[in-house]
TrEMBL record:
Entry annotated with the keyword Coiled coil: yes
Protein name: Transposase
Lineage, opening ranks: Bacteria, Bacillati, Bacillota, Clostridia, Eubacteriales
Keywords: Coiled coil
Species annotation: Oscillibacter valericigenes
InterPro entries according to UniProt: DUF6076
Residue ranges the record marks as coiled coil: 173-200, 302-350
Pfam families referenced in this protein's UniProt entry, alphabetically: DUF6076
Superkingdom in the source lineage: Bacteria
Length: 364
């Protein structure tokens, strides 16, 4: 009911420059909020369910009774719901102290004519009220679909990219879109023939490539150069619509959500670099970050792999020379090379120390 309280849950504006989004006057790298939602995951979206149910019940009582008691109960239920919503990405930047929620229910109670019109089918206020209810009711499912669909897309089309340049992201997205559009057409063809679509790899009904948005161009000041530039100012009707826009605009700028190879949490890999680790502090490491700890572990793993290959090759060449000179038979050669490979695999899997690995290779 934006026309009454202009609250962030109804409509909110975000300015986009080529590399940033501007929310509440602050600048964020493109992709920031998509990553934040991925990190929140299913649980944060599910927290909406019970407060929403309570608010729906109390608000219906208020609409019928319109007295002080029902207004107070609806007001407190709405505060409880908005506190949960205020933890979500973007909303946590917009639904700060001073937003207009507290005055909504007292305002409605003081304007009975608005309440009557809001409940009269076919009126503009009734249509607005129905849209408002629908957005609240669908928000949990839409946020969970965003998390599920985005994770599937990233795992299937972006995980094994040979490089992390912006162009590689766009090509991967093009492949993803082609696959989804082909699947959507196949689903439509199957359903047109009266049959049921059985492929449940991804829920095609929750995927869309278009989102309602109003757009205009506004001048903004670049915080780094202090020079004016034009930004796209978009007014979104839903949080999920903005999250997809932030995700795709970030992708076009070379920014993409990625799981940290150390802590497994989501972070924003920026600038097209093959960044595998986030900058979160690892507990119990005296302030070391995943990036520092991970780089150290990666170097250790690299050295281990090099050691495994070097010692194996040395043994392989020694056995090969013995076979060529006739000191061992072909069968003995095959058996000992297989044993050397097993030892290499065990060492690489950290099932034996370097000393034991070298010792057993020398005994072959």
């Amino acid at each position: 009911m934006y026309y009454m309280n202009q609250d962030a849950v109804d409509y909110f504006r975000v300015d986009f420059t080529p590399g940033e989004s501007i929310v509440g006057g602050k600048h964020y790298p493109l992709g920031t909020f998509a990553v934040e939602m991925m990190e929140c995951g299913w649980n944060r979206a599910a927290e909406i369910r019970q407060p929403l149910k309570r608010f729906q019940e109390e608000f219906q009582v208020f609409l019928a009774a319109r007295d002080v008691s029902s207004a107070a109960a609806a007001f407190h239920a709405m505060r409880e719901l908005w506190q949960v919503l205020g933890k979500l990405p973007v909303y946590n930047k917009l639904m700060v102290e001073g937003h207009r929620l507290p005055g909504l229910i007292p305002y409605l109670r003081g304007h009975q004519d608005l309440l009557d019109e809001m409940l009269t089918p076919g009126t503009p206020r009734n249509e607005g009220y129905i849209r408002w209810k629908g957005k609240l009711e669908h928000l949990e499912d839409e946020l969970q679909s965003f998390v599920k669909n985005t994770q599937w897309m990233l795992d299937e089309f972006f995980q094994e990219l040979p490089s992390r340049r912006r162009q590689d992201y766009i090509r991967a997205y093009a492949r993803y879109r082609d696959v989804i559009e082909d699947a959507m057409q196949a689903k439509q063809d199957v359903e047109d023939e009266g049959e049921e679509w059985e492929d449940r790899t991804v829920d095609l009904d929750t995927i869309s490539f278009t989102f309602p948005v109003n757009i205009s161009l506004v001048p903004v000041l670049d915080p780094k150069t202090r020079r004016p530039t034009l930004a796209e100012q978009m007014t979104f009707e839903s949080l999920p619509g903005f999250l997809y826009m932030d995700l795709y605009k970030g992708m076009a700028a070379g920014n993409l959500p990625r799981r940290c190879a150390h802590c497994r949490r989501w972070f924003l890999a920026m600038g097209g670099y093959d960044t595998r680790y986030c900058n979160r502090v690892v507990p119990g490491t005296n302030g070391k970050t995943c990036r520092k700890v991970g780089a150290h572990e990666r170097e250790k793993e690299k050295q281990k792999t090099e050691t495994a290959a070097r010692e194996y090759n040395r043994t392989y060449n020694r056995l090969k020379a013995r076979k060529r000179r006739g000191r061992i038979t072909v069968d003995e050669w095959n058996r000992q090379v297989a044993q050397a490979q097993e030892l290499k695999d065990a060492f690489t899997a950290r099932k034996m120390t370097k000393e034991a690995y070298v010792k057993k290779l020398n005994e072959l």
